[in-house]
Structure formats: structure tokens, C-alpha cells
Specification:
The protein is an alpha+beta fold. Helix content is 44%, strand content 13%. The protein has two domains: 1-30, no CATH class; 38-122, no CATH class. It is built from four helices and six strands. The strands form three sheets. Strands 1-2 form a two-stranded parallel sheet. It has a two-stranded antiparallel sheet with strand order 3-4. Strands 5-6 form a two-stranded antiparallel sheet.
Length: 125
């Protein structure tokens, strides 16, 4: 089941967390023209590939790819803010959609929304 809204609401996020719905779609969360520009800007510099899903592109390493190997975990944490900043640069002069989502979630969710911390260090979005 899918919920469609004009604005993200706490109740919709609660239903998603309780697995009462599979997805929440916020209509026009990002303007269509801006979304198209963001897509072009993000893609034009190329993307890295997931190790176990090479058909999907990404910016930066995701934590599960570290596979509990200390050198890869260290590399992951050392590159977190470089990767966040790279995404922001690719989105400029527009706001990164993930930053916008985090901000909206922080406003509507009682506990807020922030970057995950693991081993005392911030994780990538």
C-alpha cells in the first residue's frame, strides 16, 4: 500500500515504521524541473558502482560494503564528509534532496532526524 501526500506528515512516517504501508510518496517534494536538473548534475560526473550490485550507481561507499573489515571500515568513516560534500556540490545551487528530507523529518518527527552515529563517528546519508 502507498500513501500519497502533498506534505510529509508524522502520521505517515509512523505508519511506514509500523509497516502498515510500504511507501510514502510526497507529491512535488522536489519540483520536477529542479529534479531533472539535479539528476543531470549528479550523473554528469559519473557514479561509483556497488560491489554487489554493479548496475546501481552511488556516490561514496555504503557501510555494509565494509564487510566488517577494519581497513574498509576506516576508509568508510574517513570519507563520510567528503561524500556528503560531493553530493552537495553536485546539487548546487539547489539543496541536496537528502538534506531537505532530513530537515523535514527533523521538524516532524518527535525525536528529530540526524546522521546515524556508529563507534562515535557520523555515518554517510
Amino acid at each position: 500500500m502507498l500513501i500519497e501526500l502533498d506534505d510529509l506528515k508524522q502520521g505517515a512516517v509512523e505508519r511506514l515504521a509500523r509497516e502498515e504501508v510500504l511507501a510514502v510518496r510526497v507529491r512535488h517534494f522536489i519540483d520536477e524541473d529542479i529534479a531533472a536538473r539535479l539528476s543531470e548534475q549528479i550523473m554528469e560526473r559519473g557514479l561509483q558502482k556497488y560491489l554487489n550490485a554493479p548496475s546501481i550507481g552511488r556516490i561514496g561507499m555504503v557501510f555494509y560494503e565494509a564487510e566488517n573489515q577494519p581497513p574498509l571500515i576506516a576508509n568508510y568513516f574517513e570519507s563520510v564528509f567528503d561524500n556528503i560534500n560531493e553530493l552537495r556540490k553536485r546539487c548546487a545551487p539547489y539543496v541536496s534532496p537528502i538534506d531537505l528530507l532530513r530537515c523535514v523529518l527533523d521538524e516532524i518527527w518527535p525525536a528529530g532526524a540526524q546522521l546515524q552515529t556508529l563507534y562515535g563517528r557520523k555515518m554517510y546519508v
